[in-house]
What does this fold into?
Amino acid sequence: MINIINEFPAADLHGGQLYAINNFLDPKDLTGKDVLDIGCGFGWFERHAIKQDIKKIIAMDHTDEDLKTIRKFILDPRVDFSVGSAIALPFPDNSFDTVVTWEVLEHIPKRTEVQMFREMKRVLRPEGRIYLSTPHHSFITNLLDPAYLLTGHRHYKPRMIEKFAEEAQLTVENMTVKGGFLDSIFVLNLYIAKWIFRRRPFFENFFNKSADRRYTSSKNGKFQLFAALRLTKKV
It folds into this structure.
């Protein structure tokens, strides 16, 4: 991930990140656990996960350059770093209690989703959990995502996640879709502000407060899909 505006691991979470930490991920899957974060980016998850008294977390991304920012700012001894591919994880079988991967599935090579699910299953311990988020496939989300229209950035429907899980012998324990129209507008705002003006998003506080309301609402959303998976129990 190119850090073109000198970002650092977020201390103040909003929207999907806040929902993932506070509402979706069970704290019991962090406290005292060995955790793998596939596609760690700048380290927002590591910054907040270590507050849950994890045993160890491996922050993994695709290249050394991708890890440059997180290595600079996340200095806790419980955090290790690794370069690797989501479809060929560089870890032994049964290495982790919890695997998380936020907004990564859509970036791996096309038609390798099942391989990624199989790799997550392989490194997961028997009673472990996998948590993921990815863009949700809907008309508005697709229409307002330039990456979807121009570069093949993928969005997923719940039944697609269920199919990947089934083929990898994983079971979906929980799945939900959150966010809405304004979150898609924020993505456009983010692209324009970051890639054209080299700055933070315009009206960022407004969008953050608005997203927090949507993500804490009990209503179903359209923008971002969250799933929790476990190993399929043999009968």
Q: What stands out?
A: The mean pLDDT is 95.
